[in-house]
Amino acid sequence: MSQEISLKKEEYESILKQAVEQIRTTRIIVAKQLNSATQSIYWNLGKLIAEKQLAEGYGSAVVNQLSVDLKKEFPDMGLSPRNLWDMKRFYERYYLADLKLRQAVAVLPWGHNLLLINKVQSLEAVLFYANEAIAKGWSRDWLLNAIKMDSFSHHQTQIKSHNFNETLSAIDADYANEVFKDRYNLGFLGIIEKVKETELEKRLVEKIKNFVLELGKGFTFIGNQHRLEYNNKEYFVDMLFFHRGLRSLIAVELKIGSFKAEYVGKMNLYLSLLDKLEKGETENNSIGIILCADKDHLDVEIALQDINKPIGVAEYQLLLPKDQLQDLLVNEIKAYNN
């Protein structure tokens, strides 16, 4: 006879959350192992074709026959002649490359690697896109979007707009510099028309998983319109996170238009309240991020000049402008047809 087990709702939800995290973590590990094993096969096949000095033209008959015979043995592995030539390109491109790069591409899905081979020339850029795809779980479409927007170049030229070096310890400032970016891509929201800040916040909350992935590793979402009460007054933080590595509360304020100096004063107040009311004894000071559609670095620099709370200002990109998006699609169609 079974015995009914009674748990409080909070206790059950905690168990369920841990179980879901266990499954998700294991799935990610298994997926990486499968990708790595697949890339290893493709790498070795590409190496075999390269070392036998088979080239398109006089080697086509050999590769075509190899494809036919391999597909008889392994019908579900995608061993078409075109794929075999791609494996050769995969090997030839990376066999002399840095170990970090070879390790990064080894755990990517094959479709991601084909994109990087066909669309990205610089090995330095390949490493950037591969690491971003791994860290943020990018799909093939997300990777293509990042390449088309030339995220690597933006990453190379971006100027950090923050006061972390003045308000954090040297170690924490270095870490915060690595954690926070100068520009965030919010293209997953599908917004191409002007929206209100409340609508932007609503959409981000609805797709919070994607937003956390875009922020990077270590972020945990606490809530939106997070209420703070002090001296009989109420204040609301647009979005509140906790970063495990920095051990800090992270307040995010969303602004539809360009950066204004007044946003810094408001964020400074929120951080003071968070530190006073909610920061744990073992936690570091709270950090603020102001997300704007546009910012001028000099305006940000002067606004942060005498602020003693760590605050960063970053831009976001919702989607390519309509005319650029149309041109991109037309060019992709032409390239495909050719």
TrEMBL record:
> What is a single Pfam family found in this protein's UniProt entry?
DUF1016_N
- The UniProt record lists the YhcG N-terminal domain at 20-153
Chain segments annotated as transmembrane: none
Which residue ranges does the record assign to the YhcG PDDEXK nuclease domain?
A: 178-327
Q: Superkingdom, according to UniProt?
A: Bacteria
Q: What PANTHER family does this protein's entry cite?
A: BLR8175 PROTEIN (PTHR30547:SF0), UNCHARACTERIZED PROTEIN YHCG-RELATED (PTHR30547)
Q: Please report the name of this protein according to its UniProt entry.
A: PDDEXK nuclease domain-containing protein
What species is given as this protein's source? Arcicella gelida
Q: What is the lineage of its organism?
A: Bacteria, Pseudomonadati, Bacteroidota, Cytophagia, Cytophagales
